[in-house]
Amino acid sequence: MARWFVYVVRCRDGSLYTGISTDVAARVARHNAGTGARYTRARRPVSLLYVERKRSQSTALRREAFIKSLPRDQKLKLLKTIPAAPKAKADDSDQARPTAARAPTKRASRKPVARTTALAAGVSAAGIVLGLLFLGQQARGQSARATRPERVAVPAGKFVQGGAQGDDDERPVRDRVLKAFVIDKTEVTRIAFAACVAAHRCKAVPKPHQQPVGAAGDLPITGVSWFDARDYCQFAGGRLPSEAEWEKAARGSDGRTFPWGGESSCDRANWGNYDGEGPCAGKNPGFPVAVGRYEAGASPYGALDMAGNVWEWVADRYDEEPGRRVVRGGSCCSYFVPPRAANRNAWAPTYRDGDLGFRCAADR
Questions:
Q1: CATH topology for 4-84?
Q2: HSE (side-chain half, CA atoms, 13 Å) at 257
Q3: For position 117, what pLDDT does the model report?
Q4: Which residues of the chain have pLDDT under 70?
Q5: In terms of Cα–Cα distance, which of 115, 100, 107 is closest to 41?
Q6: Before 300, cis peptide (omega within 30)?
């Protein structure tokens, strides 16, 4: 099994960039060659400051998200105060390593988190205000649609939860029985969320995480915290789905791996492209697209985009770290392994990102 590493580099302008990889040395070389992340391309050369080894992709992702959420002074303090790790045994658990640590040499698929801070770059304050006013006008005209979203019915009964192909937190595979419920057919859109803001029931997405002014209203809303998602679902007459409800709506009752069946497909979901790399590079765009575009990827109950496009908040706390909330579904641009319905991740409820959204559910 490939080992995963969280790393921090210092860019030419002094800024810090955090990422994950299975081959840190190769990844740093890509940053310096201008073929790495978009953020580092105009800020190279970069120098490696810090490396941590993790046991799984999901653990590395959570650690990356935590480090990224820290203010700069706390990041620097973190890098200075964590001691060098002892020599690793073959079965070592998670370890923090200084830059002298040997980077792994085996390459494997990566699972980096999409960056959002550049989304609003170059947009003037006046432009943002005008854009929000325009969205407010649209929202007032469409608030009825926002509060009566199209939902699909999921019948009561048994389904298979969990998977044997992924990390330990997906196990054991077990049968679950749920009551009937309904769930949004698509991810909540930008225009629907704007209606909640206009009604003073939701807080606007903070400026650093806002989508560009003029972005299409049928894009999934992103840059929202778990609390934002909860508030919107209450406004829309529902709630966040439980993790079990989300998974049943995605895979049906027959235990299928993906919403559409047993095999991964670049044509059925928006996934697998990060900075021009990944199994769907050249086929999928590498950024969120309008909800419902991939109709061939519908779940057995007719729900769309339950694989790819954006990660989705659900109601549950993460078992291993109750301070975090679970996200499901995978995204357009945050990992290269196929977006299996059983795949799990978790972030702090205040976390925001450009490939992180949600959908709502309700009792039937």
A1: GIY-YIG endonuclease (3.40.1440)
A2: 11
A3: 32
A4: 1-2, 80-148, 334-336
A5: 115
A6: no
The one-letter amino acid at 349: P
Where b means 16+ CB within 10 Å and e means fewer, 119-142 reads: bbeebeeeeeeebbeebeebbeeb
Place of tokens 């490396």: 51
Report how far residue 225's alpha carbon sits from residue 221's, in angstroms, rounded to the nearest whole number: 11
- Please name the amino acid found at residue 145: R
CATH 3.40.470.10 for the 125-363 domain, yes or no: no
Average pLDDT, the chain: 81
Cβ neighbourhood burial of 242 (10 Å; 0-12, 13-18, 19+): middle
Helices (H), the chain: 24-33, 38-41, 57-69, 72-81, 125-147, 190-198, 226-235, 243-251
User: Would you kindly state where each structural domain of the chain is located, as residue ranges?
Assistant: 4-84, 125-363
Per-residue model confidence (pLDDT) at position 335? 63
| pLDDT of amino acid 99 | 37
> What is the predicted pLDDT for the residue at 360?
98
Give the position of tokens 């209450």.
234
The per-residue pLDDT for 25 is 86
d(CA 339, CA 257) in angstroms, rounded, equals: 9
Length of the chain: 364
User: Which of 200, 189, 174 shows the shortest CA–CA distance to 360?
Assistant: 189
- pTM for this predicted structure: 0.67
- At residue 122, the 3 state secondary structure works out as coil
Nearest C-alpha neighbor of 359 from the set 203, 134, 135, 181: 181
